[in-house]
Every structure is written in C-alpha cells, then in structure tokens.
Amino acid sequence: MLKIALIGAGKMGISHLSILGGYADAEIVGVCDTSKMVTDFLTKHGKFNCFADYNKMLAEVKPDAVVVAVPTKFHYSIIKDLLEKKIHVFAEKPFCINYQQSLELVQLAEKNKLVNQVGYHNKFIGTFKEVKRIAESGALGEIYHFIGESYGPVVLKKKADTWRSDPAEGGGCLLDYASHVIDLVNDILSPIKAAKGTLLKSIYSGKVEDAVYSLVELQTGQTGLISVNWSDDTYRKMSTSVTLVGTKGKLISDANELKVFFKEENALAGYVKGWNVKYITELEDGVDFYLRGEEYSAQLDYFVKAAKGLVPNNINNFASAADTDKAISIIKESSK
Amino acid sequence: MERILFGDNQFFAVNHISDSKSREQSIRFKDDSAIIKVLDDAINAGINTFMCTTHDRIANICDIVRANPEKYRDFKILPCMPYAHKYANAVTELGIAGTLKQYVPGNFFGSLFKGGMAYLSKDYESIMELMVDAEMKMFKGIDTPVIFLQNVITDLLLGLRAYDMLAAFHAYIKKKYNAEAGFITMNMPKLLSVLEEAGITNPIICSSINKAGFRMSGGKEIYEETLRTKKFRAVAMQVLGGGAIHPRAAIEYVCGLPNIESILFGASSKTNIESTASYIEQFDAKNKVTTY
After folding, report:
1. Burial class of residue A269, CB neighbours in 10 A (0-12, 13-18, 19+)
2. Closest residue in B to A21 (Cα–Cα)
3. ipTM greater than 0.85
4. Residue B50: closest CA among B72, B70, B78
5. Do B18 and A288 touch (CB under 8 A)?
6. pLDDT band at B116, cuts 50/70/90?
7. Is A145 helix (H, G, I), strand (E, B) or coil?
C-alpha cells in the first residue's frame, strides 16, 4: 500500500487528510504541522503519527508520497527537498510564487521520475471535464471569445492583515483565487501568453487586490476576459464559470450546470440544435468517500493511482501549474 | 420522527444543480415573511417538522415561532449544526485556532493559548460542547427532538477517524438537551459501521438516497444493502437527486426501500409541497397494501 504523509494541517491539509483517511488505497504514515492544538487533536482522536518538524517525519516514517498544504511561500523549498529525496508530491495551489522556481521543480520532478500534482480541483468536476471535451471536439466552431469568471465572499470588509493580504506570501485575489479560473482556461483552451490590459482592484485589502479584470490572449491566438472578485457577497460560496463563444455555438458552464447552444443539427453526439442543459448529477462519477465535493476526493484518488503507475499523471501536473504561475505573472505585469 | 420532514435549502440559496436558480431563491426569500409563508404552506399540507441549518436567519424564524405559540403548537424543529460556511470562511482567514478563538464563547481559549501545554481529549470535548450550546441558543423554548451534526463535520471527523468525537456529540445531545443526536453524512454505510463500533445502537442517520445514485458514496447498491440488513433510523435526503429525477419516480423509489423512517425534502411553492407530500402518501399506501 502507498505510504503517504501530510505537511501542513490547515484548512486544505485537514480536508486532504480526512479524505485520505476515508480512502482505502493509501496508508497515512505521518502528519506534520506547527500547531500543537491541531496535532494533539489528530494524535489523541485520530491516532495519527504527528510531527512538528517535517524532516524528522520524513526520516522516521519514509513516505512514498507527500501532500504539501503549507502557505505558498514555503512550497518551493519543501517540494524541492521532497523531490530530492525521491518522494512523489501533491501540492496545494498556487504552485510557486516565483515562476522560475516552478520551472525548476518541473524539471526536478521529471529528472527524478516522480509523480507531481497540484490541487486545481476544478479539472475533476464533471461539468468542466465536459466543457473541455466540447471545446476540443470543434463543435463550437472557431471559439473567438471566452470569459472565465469567479466570484465569492472571502474579503468583505477591511480588517487586520494575514498572509492572505501579503503579496510576498502568496496572498491576494490574483494568486489565491483567480488562479483557479486562469488554470481552467489554460486547460480548456490553451495557456495564456499575453495580457492586453489588466485592472487589479483593491476594494477592502490594503496591500493586495480583491478583484482581477484582465483581457488576455492565449497561445492559440484566441482572446477573452478573466473577471474575478473575492469581495462579492451576493455569492454564498465561490462560484466559477466559463463562457465560450464560437462561430457554431455558445457554451456557458459553472460547476453544476452546463448550457450549450448549437446553431446546427448533429453538432455533437448527445446534443441537439438549439439550447442543451446538462447537470452535474448526470456528468459526475461517484466517489468512495465524500467530504466536500466529488472533485476533492477524485483528485487525491488520481494522485494515488498515478503514484502507483495506474494513470498517466497528466492532469494538474507541475508543468500545467507552472503555466498557470506564468499566466499570473503575465497578468500582474500588465497591470503596472 | 414524522414520515415527512421539511428542509430549508431553498430558503438559503442552496441549489445543487443550478447557480442561477440559487440566485432566484435568494431574491425570493430575502424577507423572513416569505420563508414563514412557505413554512405555513407545509404545515397546512400536514408537515409539522422543519429540519434546518443553524443559519443566522433561522433565529428570526424561531422568534416568530415563539411569538405564536398557538399557531405553532405542534411545530418541531430539527436543528442541523453548524452552518458550515460561516466557519469555513473564518478558517480561510484566521486559521483553525483563530476561528475557534473567535467562535467558542467565554474565556476558554484565553487560558489554553497561553504556554505550550498539551491539549487533553476533554479540552476538545469542552470546545465541542461550548460550540453546540452556542448554536442551540436560538432554539430556546422550541421543541427540538433530534439535533443533527452537519455532513461536512460528520464526514470530516469520520475521515480523521475521530470516532470518539462523534460518540461525544451523541452523548452530549442526550445529556444536555434530552434529545436524540442525528448524523448527516455522504458516507452512510461507513458511518453506520463506525457508530455501531462506538456502541451507539440504532442511530439516526440522514443521507442522500435517490434513484440516480447521486452523492451515495461507494454506490447505490451498498446503500440499499445497508438499509436491508442493518438496524438504524434512516432519513433520506436529496431524494430528487438535486432535481434531476422526476418527483413521482423519485418518491416511488425511496418509498419502495425498506427501513426508511423519514423523507426530507424542500420546496418553494405550495403546489410542489402538496404534490411531493401526496406522492409519499400515495406510494406508502400502495406499499402497505402489498405488504399485507
């Protein structure tokens, strides 16, 4: 059985730990976090083998794979360390603060032949998987415009600074929030290569932006809009959507509902001329253990399977996450 | 528990298949009077139990219920705690310890945060108890015969193997509120075996049970087998599969399963409440005849 460990038991780390704990095909050999309150709970109630120092944990429990869910600014050094020790890595998003560091880790993982994945979970949602399939089928004709949007209620008033409000630590709407939809557009169409104009708006945060509005161009020459705002309290939780406008049709999809309009009959098997609506209930494959959305379970299942050599490690690998880091830096640069 | 329980997702813009529908709902139910009107429609259709999250706005509904004792004489509320988004947003911002510090009432954390002393199991149980009490405040004076733990917490503890915390919740609800604890989960078969091992007999478990197999982790077959062979009080939720299954077929499926004590559903219109309730009555009557 694959021996897996966790570094960083915060919100995402605890979520990954719980999903892995309910999962049959991996053994959790260690958990590392600096919060004694968290590790004492996990030791006493979950019988996990906890550590405060990850080097000590690695030496003692010798995991085959590690989930890294520490603040982004620590990703580079910890992941580099793990890859040098020949350990497969699943890292939370965004990948690295500095794009050059992302590239270095891509090469190191490749050189050491290690499985590598980043937690952009949208790619494991049934609706977005179908959007990618439709886009690649050509059924929409030439896709001449797209909109990638994300809105949600994260920062709703001025308050004390945390790492989320410090750009040097991976804070800000662009890195922390917009990265999801940038990554999705990169994957569904092609990676962003230029930004034609960007507005990074601070609404409540002092040092970082709370909204990102950017006109971008992809490697394929397609152009579109990225529109993201994490200070929007008309949303109950984060809502991400993609709109594709083509010469033969138009598609609008969020995580739950995919609507597509085809101008002609027989554009794509299973779809008719005019509007079609598909729901997540028919597009989602079930999971064995559910915590907070099938996609969170599915991405870890994929990682474990990739580490066992059962699937190809080509969804959300370090290379695609590095493309996203690059797009983030392009957008940031164009706002200056 | 009554055969039919009325849910609250529609009031708080929780819609599992459509973001645009959720926005329409949030506009429609922006005033508490709109919620009360639908609850009254449910009561008129013979449904006297309201199963709801501990959302801030439920406090207002509780005020209205308390202010009209005659009208709501037989009305029961089954609270489901916590309203997870409140805490989830706080954890993103403040971290786990920071969130507990903000939400656990009293000065409990003042002493705990000092020094590097170890935390004891009873400390975590005390935190749980204080948080339960904080969530229960709004229901004072209202009949709450079953108090549920929301699926995100049940399943989080299940995955973290903190089975003793599930048992501690169960014991505390009995001791403090003289009520039965219930557990909402997306992993019913797994939860049931864990609760059985923890010595909890005949637990109340609310889980997705629908014809489409939606959110039935591990597959529909193992759910059906668990219902056939195990002893527990099952509540079926998401019976309409998020709206993906036709109501008649959806209810026919659930009513045909053995061992389901209650069916939970929510609806916004009087017509939908009445028709879903009448499907349940209709298929229950039919199944009863077949059994004899």
Report:
1. exposed
2. B159
3. yes
4. B78
5. no
6. low
7. strand
